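step=encode ok
step=design start
structure_in=
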């Protein structure tokens, strides 16, 4: 049946081919769209995985305590058996062993006992003699004899004997009973003295209450361990030992009163020997090794002994071994997966916010890439700071551990994002980093609020920063805010930290803020070069008139230099009115025509003495020279390492506009050539062939007289392109009035719109209206006229100037005539036209 089908016309065949191509384009777009979605999904998952690995891989379920008042949120049990050396219990065992070592004494002294024995022998003899003489004495004589006996005994032996006690001893009629009583009493005295009697009040001696009161007694040649007693205990025991004496009570009391004088301290405390013995006892104690079984409670936030040294040592040992136990940093519990889910959801929310509400277009991709890299760098630094908490330096020094959270540079990424992108993305970055760091340190709300507050302070004071010193001030103010938070937290928990700890925390917080700002200043050039983002700080540096390239422009092409200044003024004010970046417009406008320094004499603003080199070359060569200043400007920008945005303005400020003056000049020459006999003969020659499609009716290739472009593709570039043309064209006005300036600007902008030069720029009709009004005001201010006041001679005094105040002003300097000639479309046309 297809054989009998009606053949398709040429028009139908073209339409069918067009539909087929359209279908192929749509299918290709769909495939590219699907591929792009897959790539973006892969990059997002890679970013989430990288954040999870940096923040949580290998991190214990209950992280190292960074704040003194922080506790675990859950009850932690050991997931594997382990053992650790307990320093706390080892020190306790050594301290107990030292306390069990009794004090050492030197050799006991028996001198008092020996003197007492000699005194008792003499007393027995004196009493026996008294009993024999007392038979023939009267009572008065007996009393006198006893008094004399007491005096002689005390004077000779140095012991006190009471007269009543002497009477009690003399009343014992049987001398053998008295001798036996003295012998038994001296035996008990010898036992006490041999054991050793010490004085608790002697210097350096600190008795310990141990079972059995065993003390080491140092005897020359050997070391005995014997129970020694204090003087009070010796008197008590001696009194008890005299109870079995076979004498009456008054006699027992007399014997005790006499012999107790020999119960005196007879051993001296030996401190050196005691210290050596204590040291030896502590050295003999081996380190205490604690065994922890799987499932044993490691940390219980509700336990009463949570803050004890033993519990803290147990937690530290478990947290330290936990990172070593997980060799690849992957835990088998559900917590890592939960943290990965939290990280993914958090990053997804941030991405959606950036795409929908913060920035749009191609710039969002660059911002996301910049934020991702800066975020990862900041998280790596935070993870390193967190890892320091498990090191021996911090784990064994609580004063260092107390300042650890204030060393974390959480303000680094917000500072970089604030300067390079803006305050709103920086605030979002602050929120993200604060939440991740809070999760790293145990999901504490105070950590999140603390870091989020300080980061917002830095963002607020670093926004729209044009000087690097402002970043230092912002870092200092952020550190000051952190120091204030440290002081406030110490007031909430005054028993946790000492005033010295609080002072260290406040100092470290302020110092960290300053150092973070300094680090951000060092990283800014790297980020600018890598991501091709130019900050206001760099733009302000470019506006310095001492820049080598501006000095070169001023010397080589002074007219172009003045033109650039005027364009900068036009563009800067228009940017303020339309919501663009005024500093970016000013900096880029100063450098947009630097290519004219190569051949400045070919541009009318630099020509002198009415010499125009374009008269000696063809229009095509003139157009080529004019177009070359764009490429030469780009080469100079690369040579002087100007930012990418300046390079973009250099190549875009003319777009693909037509160099009309030389194009019309070439067309006119071509028409004259065609009208000549040789031209008519050449036009009628059939062998010449048809006119190419890229040639107009006069045979001129219009594309050769157009700039290479590209067209302005961002707002600031479009503003500079319009300001460049307006400034050059305004010089051709013979009469400057608001109406003429408005008509000029309206004509220029309409020509650019009709020529599709603004199709690629995101500029709106409302913004164009504001730009027109701004150009009008600025142009009138730049081209304002001044009144000339004549110098009239005084009629009465020739040669003298008139002092008459009623001087009639003359006309302005500018000529009152108007020009009906349409202004050129760009400044290069104006240059050529004036030539």
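sequence_out=
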């Amino acid at each position: 049946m297809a054989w009998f089908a009606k053949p398709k016309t040429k028009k139908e065949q073209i339409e069918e081919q067009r539909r087929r191509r359209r279908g192929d384009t749509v299918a290709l777009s769909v495939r590219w769209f699907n591929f792009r979605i897959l790539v973006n999904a892969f990059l997002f998952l890679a970013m989430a995985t990288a954040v999870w690995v940096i923040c949580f891989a290998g991190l214990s379920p209950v992280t190292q305590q960074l704040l003194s008042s922080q506790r675990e949120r859950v009850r932690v049990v050991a997931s594997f058996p382990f053992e650790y050396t307990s320093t706390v219990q080892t020190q306790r065992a050594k301290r107990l062993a030292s306390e069990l070592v009794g004090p050492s004494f030197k050799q006991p002294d028996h001198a008092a006992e020996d003197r007492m024995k000699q005194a008792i022998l003499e007393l027995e003899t004196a009493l026996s003699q008294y009993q024999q003489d007392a038979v023939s004495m009267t009572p008065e004589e007996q009393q006198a004899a006893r008094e004399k006996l007491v005096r002689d005994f005390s004077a000779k032996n140095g012991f006190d004997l009471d007269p009543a006690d002497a009477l009690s001893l003399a009343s014992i009629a049987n001398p053998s009973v008295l001798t036996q009583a003295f012998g038994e009493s001296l035996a008990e005295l010898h036992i006490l003295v041999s054991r050793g009697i010490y004085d608790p009040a002697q210097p350096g001696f600190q008795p310990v209450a141990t079972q059995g009161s065993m003390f080491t007694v140092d005897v020359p040649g050997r070391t005995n361990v014997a129970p020694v007693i204090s003087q009070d205990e010796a008197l008590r025991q001696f009194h008890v030992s005299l109870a079995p004496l076979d004498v009456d009570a008054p006699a027992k009391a007399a014997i005790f009163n006499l012999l107790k004088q020999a119960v005196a301290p007879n051993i001296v405390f030996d401190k050196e020997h005691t210290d050596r013995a204590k040291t030896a006892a502590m050295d003999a104690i081996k380190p205490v090794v604690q065994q922890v079984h799987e499932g044993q409670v490691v940390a219980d936030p509700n336990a009463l002994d949570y803050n004890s040294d033993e519990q803290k040592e147990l937690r530290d040992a478990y947290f330290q071994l936990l990172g070593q136990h997980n060799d690849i940093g992957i835990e088998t519990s559900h917590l890592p997966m939960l943290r990965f889910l939290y990280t993914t959801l958090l990053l997804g929310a941030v991405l959606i916010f950036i795409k929908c509400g913060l920035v749009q277009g191609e710039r969002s991709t660059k911002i996301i890439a910049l934020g991702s890299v800066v975020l990862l760098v900041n998280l790596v630094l935070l993870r390193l700071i967190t890892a320091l908490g498990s090191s021996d330096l911090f784990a064994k020094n609580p004063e260092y551990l107390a300042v650890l959270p204030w060393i974390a540079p959480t303000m680094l990424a917000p500072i970089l994002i604030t300067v390079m992108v803006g305050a709103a993305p920086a605030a979002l970055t602050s929120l993200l980093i604060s939440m991740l760091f809070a999760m790293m340190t145990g999901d504490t709300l105070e950590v999140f609020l603390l870091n989020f507050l300080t980061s917002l302070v830095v963002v607020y004071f670093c926004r729209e920063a044009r000087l690097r010193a402002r970043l230092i001030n912002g870092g200092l103010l952020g550190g000051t805010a952190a120091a204030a938070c440290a002081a406030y937290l110490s007031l909430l928990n005054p028993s946790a930290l000492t005033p010295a700890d609080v002072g260290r925390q406040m100092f470290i917080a302020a110092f960290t803020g300053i150092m973070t700002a300094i680090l951000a200043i060092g990283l800014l050039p790297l980020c600018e070069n890598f991501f091709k983002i130019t900050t206001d700080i760099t733009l302000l540096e470019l506006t310095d008139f001492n820049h080598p390239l501006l000095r070169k422009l001023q010397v080589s092409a002074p007219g172009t230099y003045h033109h650039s200044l005027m364009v900068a003024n036009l563009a800067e004010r228009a940017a303020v009115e339309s919501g663009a970046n005024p500093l970016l417009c000013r900096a880029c406008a100063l450098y947009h025509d630097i290519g004219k320094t190569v051949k400045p004499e070919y541009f009318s603003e630099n020509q002198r003495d009415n010499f125009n080199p374009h008269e000696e070359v063809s229009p095509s060569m003139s157009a080529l020279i004019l177009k070359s200043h764009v490429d030469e400007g780009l080469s100079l920008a690369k040579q002087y390492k100007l930012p990418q945005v300046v390079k973009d303005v250099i190549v875009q400020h003319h777009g693909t506009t037509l160099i009309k003056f030389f194009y019309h000049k070439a067309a006119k020459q071509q028409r004259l050539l065609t009208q000549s006999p040789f031209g008519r003969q050449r036009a009628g020659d059939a062998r010449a062939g048809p006119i190419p499609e890229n040639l107009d009716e006069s045979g001129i290739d219009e594309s050769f007289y157009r700039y290479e472009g590209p067209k302005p593709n961002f707002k600031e570039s479009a503003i500079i392109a319009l300001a460049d043309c307006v400034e050059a064209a305004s010089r051709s006005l013979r009469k400057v009035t608001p109406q003429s300036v408005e008509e000029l600007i309206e004509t220029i902008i309409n020509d650019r719109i009709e020529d599709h030069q603004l199709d690629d720029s995101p500029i709106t009709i409302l913004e164009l209206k504001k730009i027109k009004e701004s150009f009008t005001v600025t142009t009138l201010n730049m081209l304002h006229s001044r009144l000339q006041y004549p110098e009239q001679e005084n009629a009465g005094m020739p040669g003298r100037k008139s002092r008459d105040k009623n001087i009639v002003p003359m006309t302005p300097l500018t000529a009152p005539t108007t020009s009906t000639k349409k202004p050129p479309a760009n400044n290069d046309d104006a240059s050529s036209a004036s030539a």
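step=design ok
step=annotate ok -> The CA atoms of residues 6 and 12 lie 12 Å apart.
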